[in-house]
Structures are given as structure tokens and as C-alpha cells.
Amino acid sequence: MTRRLVYLLPLVLFLGVVAYFAVGLTRDPQKLPSTMIDRPAPEFALPPLLDSVPGLATADLKGQVALVNVFASWCAPCRVEHPILTGLARDGVTIFGINQKDKPEPAKRFLANLGNPYTRVGVDADGRASIDWGVYGVPETYVIDREGHVRYRHVGALTARDVSEKIRPMLRELSR
Amino acid sequence: MRALAVLAFLLAFLPGLAGAVQPDEVLADPALESRAREISKGLRCLVCQNESIDESNATLARDLRLLVRERLVGGDSNAEVLDFVVQRYGDFVLLSPPVRPSTWLLWYGPFGLLLAGAIAAVFYLRAQRRPAAVAEPELTGEERRRIEALLADEDRNS
Amino acid sequence: MIAEIGHYALVLALLVGCAQALLPMIGAARDEAGLMAVGDTAAIGQFALVAVSFAALTWAYVTSDFSVANVVANSHSAKPMLYKVTGVWGNHEGSMLLWVLILAFFGALVAAFGRNLPPSLKARVLSVQGMIGIGFLLFILFTSNPFERVFPPPLDGNDLNPLLQDPGLAFHPPFLYLGYVGFSVAFSFAVAALIEGRVDPAWARWVRPWTLAAWTALTLGIAMGSWWAYYELGWGGWWFWDPVENASFLPWLAGTALLHSAIVVEKRDALKSWTVLLAILTFGLSLMGTFLVRSGILTSVHAFAVDPERGTFVLVLLAIAVGGSLLLYALRAPSLQQGGLFQPVSREGALVLNNLLLATATATVLLGTLYPLLLDAMTGERVSVGPPFFNATFIPLMTPLVLLMAIGPMMAWKRADLAGVLGRLWLGIGVTVAAALGTFFFATKAPVLSAFGIGLGAWLMMGVLVDWAERARLFRVPLGDALRRARGLPRAAYGMWIAHAGLAIVIFGMTGDILWKQEVVVAARPGQQIAIAGYDIRFEGVVQVDGKNYQAERAHFLVRRNGDYVADLYPERRFYPVQRMTTTEAAIRSTGLADLYAVIGEATGEGVHTVRLYHNPLVPWLWFGALVMTAGGLVSLFDRRLRVGAPMRKARQPDALPAAAE
Residue A144 is part of which domain span? Predict the structure, then answer.
């Protein structure tokens, strides 16, 4: 009997592998979880981009629920998601911007043309602060709670669905 | 176990290839530079698919290469540099995953398999050495002698 | 019109495939010769139909018929003719068609050359081949139809990915698929044998040439892919342990194990159920490779058509084919007769150890390839498994195998005298130690590892030479007699020696490249002198040149050694406007012992370019060694005993084992 079981082993192992493949098909291997979740945002202090809007530092994150959005004028998906950000800002959501590896002129034009949803914009010219955040793709959007802890990260352009299903419920939850 | 670890360490830096490092990144101190290269080869380029930052042309890879060199110049040990990057990007960034319970199967699995296979092979070889009572019952002694003779003949010929 | 003929031929091939799968199987069960014979006709007919379909697609490419969506997506009227043709399989749909074509080709070969097979076994083999064919034809027709039309047709196409517009990569897929799909024959034989309930030396003798042919093609295919990576990707890497590379390497490893275990079945009638299992798993790994590459489930630098729907389809195919055959295995394998007896220290024992190591290596590569997925699915934790893992596990597993490769072939069947073998290897041991010590003292870099690598290669090479000399009784009988004996040795033995020697050469190549490589990266301006590995290289500057479908910056390097002219090197950076992609074309000057490898990068200032120069010792040996291994496979294929090309002579050959005489 045990001998027969040995011959069954390859089939059992194989079915296990197939099951994992089936699960794997539903996952996106590109998406990477943030290491910052539920931890304080990294230490950073970035100079302002615009004269009218202040720069961004770690201390600014405390005190309110906010989004931190990493953007650049050279990044096409950033243009795609921009109307969604301005929409959120209109609804009173605090959004901080990190302008990553950009030149000042195109960045200013980017905000002048598309509107500025950001309460503060920090210039991360060499990308070092972004690395501290663990940014690997632009745009990225982080949800920050009142204590300045990172609660959620979204990589890539935000869609209306991401906002209604994930971001807004999360903001509501944290603001309570 | 210690010997294994040493072997793993010796072999870990075997694939020594280079690509995307730009001339302006190269450190003046060759010892530091070679450490930087070694570290870079173990760090995954996150925006690429399966490349190390040493091989990749991506901007993020370049930034990370510069960061690695900066930290080395600043006096960090190799482990400290790796740790610095892992804190920001997680274990995913390491091309050689750290040994811990969730990767035991990965790291020890091959040797476990080899052991299990070896045990199975020993059982098989022992069984194969002695004729079981049921083995080839249909052969008469005459047939067996003929086969042996033919086999011996074949041995000589092949 | 032509495209519709191609599509129609595929549908017909599917119908014929159904007949091929069903009728011979019923015929074999009922012992009806007429039904069994349907298999032959159907297999050849299916091949003809798929060939018509493939020809139709090729025609659409050659004539740049942009009413066919597949041609639009992957071709361009300005593309060189060679790449129009090879573009047929440079995309997902076309490559699946090539896959099915090769599958049908192997089926037709079994039908045409299998006249000496027992009719029921042959009928069942063809039926199983037919079933695999049905699965992949359905896959093409439902998810990946290459004949889909677009209306209105665009004026021109999107061109083929420029990285694929390269002779090395153009012929890489056909050989790879010859290998992958070739293992389907071994698989079909295994399933047929399980249904028949008997595995005997004759069975192994039929399986071996097919496995050998597939293995030979796969060896060549992998080598071509690796060679391509070396000169095209622009930094001299040739193996990355990327999931897609592993997908081709896994069937190769399992196929290598199968090749060796089938010897034991053939010669000694032992290891039967294990060999059947290996045959199933080898083809299963080929199928899994297809799944991994096409489903997008793993990230890879070699991205292919990524489509979850296709992924699901291939997964279902994989589950049915391999799951079904493993179920059959679980039911039938326990009743397979155990065969020949032998002592642990014997040729059989050595081959068991060979299989243990190769199987573990296969499992290790599989584990490393799938582990990120496995962990993500179980815990959501994300890890990367890269080259450091594979090198740390694979090399320790391969080292004893290579050590064994010199000893095993010298051991006698049934009972061997290990001390005697080692005694006869005294020269080998001496040379190995000398080579390792010599390397240790003369290597400029990494002396310990260099000595290890060179010693390993020397040991294997000496093992081959000593074995050959022993068999020819060289230096023991007069030279003329020895040479006569050497001529008389079977081709299978020569095939083995050549293939093993090829691996030794590959090991030298790896050692040289990995450990002694030199690199210079500089921002150079015209006239600048660069020194590397004893060469003085002057950067002469960059000119613009126009290719057929690209524009290029071509750099010129003048290479001198001690003031004497050596060579001119012209690396390029090509820009393909249709795909908006830049590729690097390395310039390589090979001496046979080392490569001088030059790559030109972007302009970083006025006339200043990033220049990369590499000196890669022994790298040419990697490809040369792989070619030698391929040659070994071919020589072995033409052994009289296997005679895949001359099946009719078999009947007259006196067989050593009674089981084979039926």
C-alpha cells in the first residue's frame, strides 16, 4: 500500500503546483508592497517648487490625514491621474506633492497648465527623498494618518475606481 | 552548516558581469568600487523585470548605484548598505533572499531533496542488489545463462 | 484568400487530430489493425495540413499582407527578407503555430519511421500525440489565431522588435521548440507504455533516439539564445537565471536525466518506472515553460504576449496532459516488473547517482523559479530569487555530477571495481591536480575558484580521454591495432565522449569568463587611448550610418598590441524608428581563446561617448563547447543501435536481450 502511495506522490505534488499557478494568474507580479506601511514617514525636508506654495518636510505630515503624491512633468501617467487629484483637492482632501527628478521650469508649467491640487510641493531633485520613501515608479500615492504614519501606498496612476473603492474609504476611516 | 555557508558565500559572487555603470559613477578607490559592484549585483532593479541594478540602464538603478557608492564612501559596511536599501524597498530588492522561516523551504529544500533522494536511492540500490523471490520468475536457469552471456558480450562491445 | 486557406487548414488539422487521438486508441484496445492503421494516415495528414497553414502565414509575411493583424503587429515592409520570414515565429501566435507544426512533424516521423514498432504501441503513441495536438490547435484557434484580418488594412506594419532582428535569435525558437516538442514523443511513448502495462528494453530503445534528437536540438537552441544575449544585450552576459531561461533549462536538465536513465532500461531492464516518470515530467516541464512564458505569471526580461486568458488555457492544458498522465502513472506504474539486478557500485549505480543529482538540480531550479510566486500566493510576502541563489545551489549539485562523469562511464555494468577505475584514472588525477595547481599560481584573479573550475574541466576532459584510450587499448596493444579498435567502437560511445568533452569545454569557458573578465568603462573623446588586457585601443570617433530599417551611430576603434595592428572594431548603437527602440551592437574580436568586446554608449558631451571595453577570456569556448555537445548528440543519433534514420535495418540486427527481439 505505501508503495502505491509513493507512485501517487508526483500527481499530488503536480496538482499543488497547478493550484499555485491558478492563484498566481490572479496576481500582478509587478506590484510591490511598501515597507513603510504603519510606520512613520521617512525623515526628509524638501525646498518649495513654487513661491506661493511651501515646501515639504516630515513634520508637515503630522496633524491631518493627507495624501502624498509623487509626480513629475516627464511622467505621462501623472498627467492621466492629475484631474483625479484636483478633484480630490476640490473636495477638501489635503494633498502634498513630491516633485521627483524634474526640472523647475517644466514642473511649474505642468502645475500652471493642469492646476495645482497640492497644499505643499517639495522638490526632490536628486530623487534621494523618493528613495527614502521606497518609491520605485512614478506616480505613487501614499495615504498618511494624523500621526504622520504611512497607511497605504498606490503605485501607478490613480483611477476613479481606486479612489472610490480604496482611497476615499480609507481617508474617511482615518479622519474619524 | 558552516561549510555550506562558506561555499554559498564563495559561489554567490560567481556571476560577475557588468553593464550599465557609467564612467562618472566609478569610484576612484578600486577596492571600494569593486565592493560597490558586488553589492549592486545583488540588488534588484525594481522598475526592470529581472535585472540587477548593476546591469540596468534605468534611472532608479543609477540612483541606487550612486547611493550605494555614497554609503560605501561614507564608511558603511556591505551589510549596512544592503540593510539601508532593504529598509526602503523590502526584501524584494535582494536577489538572494534572506534566510528566515519563510525561505527555509527555498534554501534548505534542495539539500533536503537531495537527502530524501539519496535515501530513496539507497533503498532502491539495496533492493536491486539481492534478487527478490518474485523477480523474473519466468526465466529458467538456461535462459538466464544465455542472457548473462549475451549481456557480457554486449558489455564487451559497447 | 491565402490567410483563409491557412485558417481552414488549421480547422481541418484539428478534425484530423480528433481522428488521430480516438481511432488508433480504440483500435489498440480492440486489437483491430484497420483502426490502428488510421493513426499513420492521420499523423501524416495532420502534418501536411499544419504545414499548409504555416506556409500560408509565411506567405502573408513574405508579401507583407497588412490585412492580416498578426503581420501588421509584427512586420514592416522595409524589414529585410530574412526577418520577414523569421518574424513568422517572432510573436506569440506564429510561434504557437510553429510549435504545432513541429509537434505534427514528430507525429509524422513516428508514423513514417515506426514501422518496426509493435502496432498497438505505435497506435497508442500516435493517439497521445494526436491528443496533445488537439489541445494546442484549440489553443491557437480560440485564443491566438494568427490569421485574423484587420479592416481597413493599414499602410504599413509596426515592425518586429529590433532585438529579435538578429540571426542568432531568428533561429533560436525553432531549435528550442524542436527540443521542447521533441520530448512529446518520449512523453507519448511513456503514456502508451503505461496503457500497455509494459516497459522493456525495446521500449527504451525506441524512446532513446527521440529523446536524444530533442535533447540535441534543445542544447543548440539554448546555446543560440545564450550567444545572442552575449553579443546583443551589450554587456557580455550570457546566462541570467531568468525565469524564461529557466523554463528552457528545466526540460534540458530533466531530458538529460531521461537520456541517462533510458540507458539503464535499455541495457539492464531496470529503473523502469522512474524512466517513465522522467519522460512524463520532461515534457511536462516543456509545457510548463510555455505556460510560464505566455501567462505573464512571472516577471522576465524576455516578455512575451502576456494574457491571462491564454495563461488559463495553457494551465488547463498542462493540468489535463500532465495530471492525466501522472494519474495513469499512479495507477499503472506499481505493476511494472522490476528488472535487472546490480550492485550499488556499478555503471547502473553511477547512473542512479547521476539521475539523483540531475533530478535534484531540476527540482532546485524549479523551486527557485517558482518560489516568489509560491510565497506570494501563500503569505503575500514578496521576495526575489536571483542568480546568487541559483549559483549557490546549482553549482554544488553539479560539481559531484561532473566528478562522477569521469568515473561512471569507466565502471562495468552490474558490478564495478571502483578502486580499479580510479587506478586507471591515475593520469587523469595527475593532470587535474597539475592543472588546478598551475591555475592557482598563475591566475591573476580569484585563484581558488579558478583552480576549482579549471581542475573540474580538466578532470572531465581527462576522464573522457582515458576512457577512450582504455576502450581502444591504446598503449597496451600495438598502435595500429588500437586505432582499429578505436574505429570499431560504437558511435553511441563516441557520442557520449564528445558530449562529455563538450561540457568540459563549457566549464573552461565559464571559469574563464566569470573569473578573469576585465572591464573598462570610460567617457572617451576621439583620439583617446584605452588600455585593456595588453591591448592599446584608440577611439577614432563616431559616424552616422543608415541601415535598411534603422539609423546607427558607428564607432571605430583601432586595436593594437605592442604597437602592432590587431584589428578594427565597429560597435554600433542602432535606432529603429518604427518601434522607437535603440539597440546596441557589440563589436567582438575573438582569438578563440578570448574575446575583445566593445560597446558604444550614449554621447555624453561634445564628441564624448561612453565606451565599454571587455576582455573575456575563454568565452568563445562556451559556444564551442555547446556545439561539441550538440555534435555528440548527433553522432550518438547515428549509432547503428539507435538508427533513427535507418529503422529498417533494425530487424536484421541480432538483439542482445530477448525482450527486444519480439
Answer: 35-175
CATH number for the domain that contains residue A81: 3.40.30.10
Taking the C-alpha atoms of residue C282 and residue C258, their distance in angstroms, rounded to an integer, is 8
Write the DSSP symbol of residue C334: G
Three-class DSSP labels, C542-562: EEEEECCCCEEEEEEEEEEEC
**Complex ipTM over 0.90:** no
**Interface B:C, Cβ pairs < 8 A:** 192
> Which of the residues C283, C285, C297 would you substitute to probe the A interface, choosing the one with the greatest number of A C-beta atoms within 10 Å?
C297
Integer angstrom CA distances of residue B57 from B84, C518, C612? 22, 20, 14
Find the mean pLDDT for residues B120-139. 69
Number of domains chain A is built from: 1
- Angle CA B38–C573–C526, to nearest 5: 85
Within the 30-49 window of chain A, which residues sit less than 8 Å (CB to CB) from chain C? 30, 32-33
Whether A3 is covered by a domain: the verdict is no
In a domain, A89, yes or no: yes
Nine-digit cell at A7? Answer: 507512485
Helix residue ranges, H only, C114-171: 119-143, 167-170
The domains found in chain B, sorted by start residue, are 15-93 (1.10.8.640), 101-157 (no CATH)
C307's CB contacts (< 8 A; 6+ apart) are C92, C143, C294, C295, C296
Max intra-chain CA distance, chain A: 81
Q: What is the 3-state secondary structure (H, E, C) of B101-158?
A: HHHHHHHHHHHHHHHHHHHHHHHHHHHHHCCCCCCCCCCCHHHHHHHHHHHHHHHHHC
Is residue A117 reached through a cis peptide bond, with omega within 30 degrees of 0 on the bond before it?
A: no
CA–CA distance, C239 with C226 (Å, rounded to integer): 6
**What is the distance between the alpha carbons of residues B138 and A136, in angstroms, rounded to a whole number?**
70
Q: What is the mean pLDDT of each run of 10 residues along chain C (662 residues)?
A: 92 96 93 91 96 96 91 87 88 91 95 89 95 95 90 83 78 90 95 91 90 95 90 80 89 96 90 93 92 70 59 89 94 82 89 95 94 84 90 94 94 89 90 93 84 94 94 87 89 94 96 88 90 92 88 92 92 85 87 91 82 91 96 90 46 37 30
- List the grid coordinates of C560: 593594437
Give the chain C residue whose CA is nearest to the CA of B110. C364
CB A53 within 8 A of CB A119: yes
Q: Looking at beta carbons, which residues of chain B come within 8 Å of A136?
A: 46-47, 60, 89
Coil, helix or strand at residue C444? coil
Residues 6+ away with beta carbon under 8 Å from C585: C231, C232, C552, C571, C572, C573, C574
Q: What's C154's DSSP letter? A: P
Cβ contacts of C375 on chain B, cutoff 8 Å: 102-103
Strand partners, C559: C537, C567
Of how many residues is chain C composed?
662
Cβ neighbours, 10 Å, residue C149 = 15
Residue of A nearest to B70 (CA): A128
CB contacts < 8 A (A, C): 68
Cα–Cα distance for residue pair C568/C547, rounded to 1 Å? 20
CA geometry: angle B66, B70, B71, nearest 5 deg: 120
CA distances from C84 to C124, C178, C224 (A): 39, 21, 20
Of C311, C334, C376, the CB nearest to A7: C334
Q: What Rg, from alpha-carbon coordinates, does chain B have?
A: 27
3-state secondary structure of C67: coil
Assess B89–A contact: CB distance below 8 Å, yes or no.
yes
Triad C143, C144, C146: Cα angle to 5°: 150
